[in-house]
Specification:
This protein has 226 residues and is an alpha/beta fold. The chain contains ten helices and four strands. It comes from Hymenobacter ginkgonis.
Length: 226
């Protein structure tokens, strides 16, 4: 049996921490290996639309070094971007999907195109629904006339989320420390991405996300609201 290296992807930090989605993928891998365990496991927390995958790159490097096989629970866990899947297929790394172990080059390509079509269809339905809602007079986004109490509650919720999430606390502490050293938000985004930090909603950091996370973590709240 070749050396199998499992790659899992979850869409949010919450899913990664709770095991939602991840446990099902791990169970599919163990079932495929008939109760065995992969030689290595790599977990990515990111949106399926984005192709920056440090854990996937690490898994591919391990596969090449061992002459092994990349094992994925479901094809759509890899990506819903057809060109990304096809590029990986042509990169010289053997990979197999537990939900279609007998797939060949042709079927993987077809499923990749279908997965991307599904994502685009979902996106279009969501946009159409928002347009229809706006046409009925609904106010989309965050209203500018929120009360101070509502804004305060929103800030409390966001800061509490950071305090309760070890990963976000670590990220916020790193940002605060580097800002004290005079590092710009733009440079910080690059450093966070290079070090493998994940943005709160998955994916890589940009300048605005870094600033927003720091604002939420260090917001001045009235005494007694901690």
């Amino acid at each position: 049996m070749p050396a199998y290296f499992a790659y899992y992807r979850v869409s949010t930090q919450k899913q990664g921490a709770s095991g939602l989605g991840l446990e099902a993928q791990q169970a599919a891998v163990v079932s495929f290996l008939k109760g065995g365990q992969p030689q290595g496991e790599y977990v990515e927390v990111e949106s399926g639309k984005k192709n920056q995958r440090p854990q996937l790159l690490a898994a591919m490097a391990a596969v090449r070094a061992a002459g092994g096989v990349l094992l994925i629970a479901k094809l759509d866990r890899l990506s819903r971007n057809a060109s990304f899947i096809l590029t990986l297929r042509d990169a010289g790394v053997d990979f197999v999907c537990c939900d279609m172990p007998d797939a060949n080059t042709l079927t993987v390509g077809l499923f990749a195109v279908l997965a991307q079509h599904e994502r685009e269809t979902i996106s279009k339905r969501t946009k159409d629904a928002l347009v229809a809602k706006k046409a009925r007079g609904a106010v989309l986004g965050t209203p500018a006339n929120l009360t101070d109490a509502a804004r305060q509650q929103s800030l409390l919720v966001r800061r509490a989320r950071i305090q309760q999430d070890p990963g976000l606390r670590q990220t916020a502490a790193f940002i605060s420390s580097r800002r004290a050293q005079g590092v710009s938000f733009r440079q910080l985004a690059g450093e966070l991405n290079a070090l493998g930090f994940t943005a709160p909603r998955g994916g890589t950091f940009n300048q605005k996300q870094v600033q927003r996370l720091l604002d939420h973590a260090t917001a001045n709240l009235p005494i007694g609201t901690n």
